[in-house]
């Protein structure tokens, strides 16, 4: 643990960033951070890709009320777009108030207490992990729909796509943004082109995509109940997943990070809102009906662009973006995990950064858990979808409530209007969370309801462990002054060699007293080896005592551990160091030739004593070979 881990953290919301002049060259560190366009590509893929299944979710629910029910597609979409505007405005304020990132977690931590913040963090972690699995499986499902021969290998394709996205993100979030900017631009451009082309048509250009497929429309109906509208609204809100990712990853942006993140959030909301409303208008304009085996987006592309090359461009762009939408999680979750690690709720290793500003351990942990989900589901998207989007609504609701409290405490100009906006958003997202959980509970949502409190318990267990460690280390208190104590260095040996000589030389340099020890095996061969070593030691006479330790069970570590305990009990103030000499071979494969005796001894001493362990490496091949003297 670092005693200064919290001292160097900037208080949330403190300080102003320098103006964005646009002329200064980015520093070496800033080159590994995001610009606004790169942030849009790296952090918006989840939200952008949701237009492929958000409108379809609305249509499928309303189809239960027949053609009359489909007439409510546009009003429901407008309601979702209004909620999107509320969320974008809210998260824009979150970015300004919490520039260190964390989004909903940071808001809840400051204004709603520790336990609520942990619930928010758990919901975000679950949503990010599920987003990876759902995005990859959905993208591969679209691919196997076009190429049915690949269906049997869909799990391996899913794992391959996951490995690709993970590898790109290990090279840095800027690198992932560069890779994914083109697919994002192609997808957004093709959808917007499709919307414009559809608005210019009076009738569908083609219906070939839906031809021959059974309609999913229910029989004639003349009424739509409030519950059905709520279900449609909640289902369509799956298109809002990913809106919070920008606020979670503010530190990943290039300075001035707040402004760039806010621009990215607004651009994301504007593009997503335009696409959702545009697609809803086209659904009503072409009187589209859901059919089995063909997506709503595919039918709209067919009706707007015709069954030609442009149709397949839309389909291919959708496949690619769905598969790569997992990148949003790789941009947001590692930053959130770093914040949790900073607050002692996750292992501190998740707070470490590698080169290129990569939270490598967070990326690898996300990839590993997502891979397990993919294996568990067999690459089947229908197994994972019922679990998706519940966590994000919990996070949305808590964030909105926290921002209401933020405005009430701050009471800045116009705070009542802002609080009303956030309060309305909290009500809408809260209703959506309840409806989604209730309607999908038996389909697997109960797993999320169980996982959330379990994750909170894990966070608190980690926090308690760090608390106990901090108490034992005396963190936050002035420690006692250092003092010198008698140092005893114990050197395990088994034979005489240059390695033994170097080990004793190092030990004499380190300690006040050096003792060489050897374990004697309880058989004739062991007795002969001990006798040979004793005779050679007396002839060599290095000035260091050799102590023979009986090893009745043939264990290497136990005799040395018992001897260390004996030294400690005899002189409690002594500092005992066990120096273990080891050979470092010239080639990696040669490590297979070693007996691993040093590792066994080190493990035993570390586990059972408080002795300092020093492993001395003798590098083979580090010195030039000696020339043979052929002179007589």
From TrEMBL:
Keyword match Transmembrane: yes
Domain of life: Bacteria
Bilayer-spanning residue ranges: 58-91, 128-148, 155-174, 180-200, 266-288, 312-341, 362-379, 385-407, 419-438, 444-462
GO cellular component: membrane
This protein's UniProt keywords: Membrane, Transmembrane, Transmembrane helix
Localization: Membrane
Region of interest called Disordered, as start-end residue ranges on this chain: 1-31
GO terms of molecular function: transmembrane transporter activity
Topological category with respect to the lipid bilayer: Multi-pass membrane protein
Keyword Disulfide bond part of the UniProt annotation: no
Protein name: Amino acid permease
The organism of origin for this protein: Streptosporangium nondiastaticum
């Amino acid at each position: 643990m670092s005693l200064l881990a919290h001292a160097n953290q900037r208080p949330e919301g403190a300080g102003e960033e320098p103006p964005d002049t646009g002329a200064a060259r980015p520093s070496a560190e800033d080159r590994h951070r995001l610009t606004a366009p790169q942030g849009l590509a790296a952090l918006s893929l989840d939200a952008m890709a949701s237009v492929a299944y958000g409108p379809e979710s609305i249509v499928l629910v309303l189809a239960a009320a027949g053609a009359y029910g489909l007439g409510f597609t546009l009003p429901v979409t407008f309601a979702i777009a209004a909620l999107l505007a509320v969320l974008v405005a809210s998260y824009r304020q979150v970015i300004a108030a919490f520039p260190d990132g964390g989004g909903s977690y940071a808001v809840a931590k400051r204004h709603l207490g520790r336990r609520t913040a942990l619930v928010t963090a758990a919901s975000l972690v679950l949503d990010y992990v599920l987003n990876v699995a759902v995005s990859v499986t959905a993208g591969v499902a679209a691919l196997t729909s076009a190429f049915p021969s690949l269906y049997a290998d869909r799990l391996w394709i899913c794992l391959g796509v996951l490995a690709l996205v993970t590898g790109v993100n290990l090279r840095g979030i800027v690198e992932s943004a560069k890779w994914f900017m083109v697919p994002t631009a192609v997808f957004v451009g093709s959808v917007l082109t499709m919307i414009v082309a559809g608005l210019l048509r009076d009738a569908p250009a083609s219906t070939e995509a839906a031809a021959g497929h059974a309609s999913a429309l229910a029989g004639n109906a003349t009424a739509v109940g409030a519950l059905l509208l709520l279900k449609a609204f909640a289902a369509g809100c799956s298109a809002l997943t990913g809106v919070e990712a920008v606020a979670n990853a503010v530190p990943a942006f290039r300075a001035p990070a707040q402004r760039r993140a806010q621009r990215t959030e607004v651009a994301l909301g504007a593009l997503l809102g335009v696409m959702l409303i545009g697609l809803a208008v086209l659904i009503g304009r072409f009187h589209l009906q859901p059919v089995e085996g063909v997506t709503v987006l595919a039918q709209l592309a067919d009706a707007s662009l015709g069954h030609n090359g442009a149709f397949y461009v839309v389909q291919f762009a959708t496949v690619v973006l769905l598969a790569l939408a997992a990148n949003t999680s790789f941009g947001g979750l590692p930053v959130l995990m770093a914040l949790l690690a900073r607050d002692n709720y996750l292992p501190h290793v998740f707070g470490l950064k590698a080169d290129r500003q990569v939270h490598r351990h967070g990326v690898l942990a996300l990839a590993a858990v997502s891979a397990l989900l993919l294996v568990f589901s067999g690459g089947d998207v229908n197994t994972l979808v019922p679990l998706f989007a519940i966590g994000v609504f919990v996070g949305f609701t808590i964030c909105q409530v926290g921002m209401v409290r933020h405005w009430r405490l701050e009471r800045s100009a116009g705070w009542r209007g802002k609080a009303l906006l956030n309060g309305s958003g909290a009500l809408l997202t809260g209703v959506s969370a309840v409806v989604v959980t209730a309607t999908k509970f038996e389909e697997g949502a109960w797993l999320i309801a169980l996982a959330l409190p379990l994750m909170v318990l894990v966070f608190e267990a980690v926090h308690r462990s760090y608390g106990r460690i901090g108490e034992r280390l005396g963190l936050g208190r002035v420690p006692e002054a250092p003092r010198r104590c008698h140092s005893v260095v114990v050197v395990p040996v088994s034979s005489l060699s240059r390695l033994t000589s170097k080990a004793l030389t190092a030990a004499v340099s380190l300690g006040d007293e050096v003792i060489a020890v050897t374990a004697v095996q309880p058989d004739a061969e062991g007795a002969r080896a001990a006798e040979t070593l004793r005779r050679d030691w007396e002839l060599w006479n290095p000035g260091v005592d050799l102590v023979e330790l009986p090893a009745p069970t043939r264990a290497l570590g136990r005799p040395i551990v018992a001897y260390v305990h004996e030294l400690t009990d005899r002189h409690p103030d002594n500092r005992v160091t066990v120096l273990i000499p080891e050979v470092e071979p010239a080639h990696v494969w040669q490590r297979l030739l070693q007996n691993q005796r040093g590792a066994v001894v080190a493990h035993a001493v570390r586990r059972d004593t408080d002795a300092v362990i020093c492993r001395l490496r003798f590098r083979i091949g580090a010195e030039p070979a000696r020339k043979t003297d052929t002179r007589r």
